[in-house]
Amino acid sequence: MTQRVCLVTRHAKAPAVAPALAAAGYVLEVVDSFDTDSLGTFSGEVERRGDMRDAALAKARLACELGGSRYGLGSEGAFGGDPFLGVSGWGRELLVWWDAEVGYAVEGFVQGPETNWQTLEVTDLDAARRFLERAGFPGHGVIVGRPGEAWFDKACNDADAVMARVREGLAAVPVMLQTDMRAHRNPTRMAMIARAASALASRLSTPCPACAAPGFGPAESIPGAPCEGCGAPTRLPRAERWACPRCAHQQERPLALRASPERCDLCNP
Ligand SMILES: [Zn+2]
Ligand SMILES: [Zn+2]
């Protein structure tokens, strides 16, 4: 049986999300009557309230309300430095599904280095040109300036337009450049949203063994995989704890992983 699921977006996210959801039995409907930028923007005109999860859940609930459907989706991305050294970009994408009738959420989350995210303050046009190259412009959008500045522009479509804006700003101060992370201006981000949709769809296709609700899946990993050398437990996972987001039923699933002695605190202190 197929069910309607609504998504509030003006950033053309539907093609990235619809195929995976269709495979899980949901027909995607886009609601574009609401401007989600009023809930927060990446470029700082409107600050997002709460964390990523709160924001995505609020959008999913809103989608149910506006679309008049039992199921809603909320998408939220976050970008910054990588969690290891903080020197290269790192993307996080969360897609939350909300069941307004039962009142519970299922999440699809992915993260990784596949992002063009970066910001740079430039003091000359050459640096601006190099930034455009690294950002993948014009295939990917860029944003010139900060909100409130006369040269702030989120809609430049060619390098001449960007350079005109940068020149305008450089007459006064160094100019801020940033990659546009809105999905319709960022194909790399769109691909990560599609991966989040696949993660969500696979959870939605897994019913809880106790209550049969969709959404059973891994909640956390449990460390302790044995070392191949000495057999001692390591920090690598020995099992995953799966949980139901509706009834809180849990199950431990062994991973049958063995850790190489290099990852063992006893063999390689
Ligand atoms: Zn060992
Ligand atoms: Zn359950």
Shape: flat
How large is the share of residues in beta strands? Answer: 25-35%
Unreliable residue runs: none
Please provide the ordered H/E string of secondary-structure elements.
Answer: EHEHEEEEHEHEHEEE
In CATH terms, what is the fold-level topology of the largest domain? Maf protein
**Whole-number radius of gyration?**
22 Å
Number of helices: 5
CATH class of the largest domain, named Alpha Beta
Q: Can you give the mean pLDDT?
A: 94
Total beta-strand segments: 11
Give a verbal description of the structure:
The chain is α+β, with helices and mostly antiparallel strands. It has three domains: 3-115 and 186-205, Maf protein, CATH 3.90.950.10; 119-179; 218-263, no CATH class. The chain contains five helices and eleven strands, in the order βαβαββββαβαβαβββ. The protein has helices at 14-23, 52-67, 125-135, 159-170, 187-204, and strands at residues 3-8, 26-31, 71-81, 89-99, 104-112, 119-122, 142-144, 175-179, 217-223, 237-243, 250-254. The strands form three sheets. The chain has a five-stranded mixed beta sheet with strand order 2-1-3-4-5. Strands 6-8-7 form a three-stranded antiparallel beta sheet. The protein has a three-stranded antiparallel beta sheet with strand order 9-10-11, with no helix packed on it. β1, α1 and β2 form a beta-alpha-beta unit. α1 (14-23) runs parallel beside α5. The radius of gyration is 22 Å and the shape is flat. The structure holds zinc ion (2 copies). One zinc ion binds next to loops.
